[in-house]
Automatic annotation (TrEMBL):
One cellular component term from this protein's GO annotations in UniProt: plasma membrane
UniProt KW ATP-binding keyword: yes
GO annotation (BP), single: L-alanine transport
Entry keyword annotation includes Calcium: no
Descriptive protein name: ABC transporter ATP-binding protein
GO molecular function, one term: ATP hydrolysis activity
Gene3D superfamilies according to UniProt: P-loop containing nucleotide triphosphate hydrolases
Family annotation (PANTHER family): AMINO ACID ABC TRANSPORTER ATP-BINDING PROTEIN, CONSERVED COMPONENT OF ABC TRANSPORTER FOR NATURAL AMINO ACIDS-RELATED
Keyword terms of this UniProt record: ATP-binding, Nucleotide-binding, Transport
Length: 269
């Protein structure tokens, strides 16, 4: 089943065309890589897919439903801007960021429970007075969060402050929190950044596991070519906001345009 359908997406900042004519179709359970040199427009695409940035043109459909309003509209017509970022997340697109964004003074468990609040069915009144429905919903959320932590092998860390976790565990927790929103599409922005080889290998296993367990589609921005080539079924290469190549890992790896624009730079370092 197609979960994401992007056509002719584009955005410019002043005289700079950051993304131009970007097209992407993603099926349920597919893992797609998005690679390219620094400044190629990769994170900008994630910001467009989550409606942080409003595109100047193009369309984005999540399970056949548009998440955009009109493009290139005046500020006075804000009601046509489509879904807000939090509404996009509720609709089925979750993401992580280049820089870890955890609530570092909160426990691992509470970091995951934060992402479950949209599905918790009690009022402010019931929460304030700790009425029975509040406790039932909290118990259900705790159970759901602990089950997710089991998937990421983090239940034993449930009561640990998130900020005291090792770097690799913080990255896994951020992905666990994203998965708590029950997404159809998971956007991961450089999840292996700063990881050592053993942490990267664990991340690879984790991503395959959540894909297989939940059927979620994953779009991955990553500079670790070993991870990309080992986990992605399809790769798009971006340069100066344009797709310059796409295909299987083998096709991309052997493409001379890609070698010159990106992979060749990596090999020469």
């Amino acid at each position: 089943m197609r979960v994401l359908d992007v056509h002719n997406l584009g955005i410019g900042f002043g005289g700079l065309q950051a993304v131009d004519d970007f097209n992407l179709q993603v099926e349920s359970g597919e893992i797609v890589g998005l690679i390219g040199p620094n400044g190629a427009g990769k994170t900008t695409i994630f910001n467009l897919l989550t409606n942080v940035y409003k595109p100047s043109r193009g369309s984005i459909k999540l399970t056949d439903v548009s998440i955009l309003g009109k493009c290139s509209i005046p500020i006075s017509d804000m009601n046509t801007l489509g879904k807000t970022p939090h509404e996009v997340a509720r609709s089925g697109i979750a993401r992580t960021f280049q820089n870890i964004r955890l609530f570092k003074n909160m426990s691992v468990l509470d970091n995951v429970k934060v992402a479950l609040h949209n599905g918790m069915n009690y009022s402010i009144f019931e929460a304030f007075f700790r009425l029975p429905r509040y406790w039932r919903e909290e118990k259900r959320a705790t159970s759901t969060a602990l089950s997710l932590l089991d998937v990421f092998d983090m239940r034993s860390m449930a009561d640990v402050p998130a900020g005291s976790l090792p770097y690799g565990a913080q990255r896994r927790l951020e992905i666990a929190r994203a998965m708590a929103t029950n997404p159809n599409v998971l956007l991961l922005d450089e999840p292996a950044a700063g990881m050592n080889p053993s942490e990267t290998a664990e991340l690879l296993r984790t991503l395959r596991d959540i894909r297989d367990r939940f059927g979620v589609a994953i779009i991955l921005i990553e500079h670790d070519m070993s991870l990309v080539m080992n986990i992605c079924e399809r790769i798009l290469v971006l340069n100066y906001g344009l797709i310059i190549a796409q295909g299987t890992p083998e096709e991309v790896r052997d493409n001379p345009v890609v070698i010159e624009a990106y992979l060749g730079q990596q090999r020469g370092e």
